[in-house]
Structures are given as C-alpha cells and as structure tokens.
Amino acid sequence: KSFLNHTAYLSCYFPNSQKTDIKDLRVFWQKGADEVVHEVYYGQEKHDNLSPKYINRTKMDMDKWTLQLLHAEIVDEGQYMCIIQHRDKGSPKVIHKSECLLHIIANYSQPEIAWLHTGELKPNEYLNLSCSSSGGYPEPKQMIWLISHEDTTDRLMRHMDVSQDAVTKLYNVTSRLNITVPTKTLINISCLLHLGEQLGSLVSVPVGI
C-alpha cells in the first residue's frame, strides 16, 4: 500500500543466496504484460525501454532488492513483476521472478453533517440532514448514521451516493437522513464512513438536536 503522491516501495524478495555480482545480473520490473517500469542492465541503469510514464520516477535499492516508485498515482495501482536474469555462458537465464500488488490510498476528509432545513424546528416535523466526505480512494464501503439518545445508539443505513472525479479518480460520497424532530429528549446525530477492514472508519462531529 502507498499513499497518493508518496513513494511506493515494491519488494522483489530476491535472497541472492549465491551472492551474485550485480554486474552479472539483468533486473527489470514490469507492470502488466508490456510496460517496463525499471531496468538495471548488468550493473547499469538503462532507460531505453522504459514506458514513458515511469521515466525519472523510479529508483532501485540493490541491497534490499526494492523498487521505489516516486509520486505514486492512482493509475499506478496494479500488479508488478520483478524478473532477474543471470548472464550464464553468454545467454541470459531467468533465476528469479516475483510479483507484488500495489494499492493506492488517499485520505478522505472528515465527514461533515449539513442541515438541509430552513426556518425553525418544530417537534414531530421532519428534519433533513446530509453527510459528505471527499477526496478519498479507494471507494468506501458504507456510510452509517448514528443516532444517540440517553443510553442507546441506533445505527441507520441509508443510500450512499458515490461520485468519482474523471481526472483525479478520487471519490466523493454523500448520504441523506430524514428523521422526526424529537419532542422530549436531546439526540446526538453523527455519521460514520466505513473505509474497509484495513483502513478503518472516519466519524463526523456530532450534531445535537
């Protein structure tokens, strides 16, 4: 995983148990079937075959066999393969292959509740609220409304509208809630954006009614 616009680290997991000299190895990284991301040709970095979008964006740490991909973008997501060939009696022979899958993460803004209501609130009237969060990646799982009164909290699922920016590929999400204004007790309403198991959740500042 890598954060958007940060450096992604792609590991090759090559043990080099033979302690082979880098000058006898050709190391190249590719994405998919035809995009060459980085190439080290018998000890020298070679740029002739690189796909244009990776030029000046990669660095290889030969001690750790790790490729650094600078300014990671959402289009960089995907499967990468590291292939190592040994110069064996003149004809190169593949001695190692490994793959890694890159996921890009962009932080969503803290969810924010807005009142879709003008004028004075009266008991038993309907109150419309919306909750929005923007600029994140990947697409979130769900948005849940939390209604707390006294000792209980109700979790309400409502439809989540999701839009994706055509250029940045970042997502914006909004959900709406329509509830009755309480007559006696104070209620606190907040909304929770669930981003998936590994990324956790974001919660809004609660609104008291």
Note the topology.
Layout: E1 2-3, E2 8-11, E3 25-31, E4 35-41, E5 44-45, E6 58-61, E7 66-69, E8 78-88, E9 91-102, E10 104-105, E11 112-115, E12 126-136, E13 142-149, E14 152-157, E15 160-164, E16 171-180, E17 188-194, E18 201-203, E19 207-208
Protein name: CD86 protein
Domain Ig-like: 1-98
Keywords: Cell membrane, Disulfide bond, Glycoprotein, Immunoglobulin domain, Membrane, Receptor, Signal, Transmembrane, Transmembrane helix
How does this model look, in words?
This protein has 209 residues and is mainly β. The protein folds into 2 domains: 2-105, Immunoglobulins (Immunoglobulin-like), CATH 2.60.40.10; 109-208, Immunoglobulin-like (Sandwich), CATH 2.60.40. The protein has strands spanning 2-3, 8-11, 25-31, 35-41, 44-45, 58-61, 66-69, 78-88, 91-102, 104-105, 112-115, 126-136, 142-149, 152-157, 160-164, 171-180, 188-194, 201-203, 207-208. The chain is elongated. The model has no long low-confidence stretch (mean pLDDT 89). It is found in: Cell membrane. Residues 1-98 form the Ig-like domain. This is CD86 protein.
Characteristics of this structure?
mainly beta, 5-stranded antiparallel sheet, Ig-like_dom, 2 domains, Immunoglobulin-like, immunoglobulin domain, CD80_C2-set, elongated, 209 residues, CD86 protein, receptor
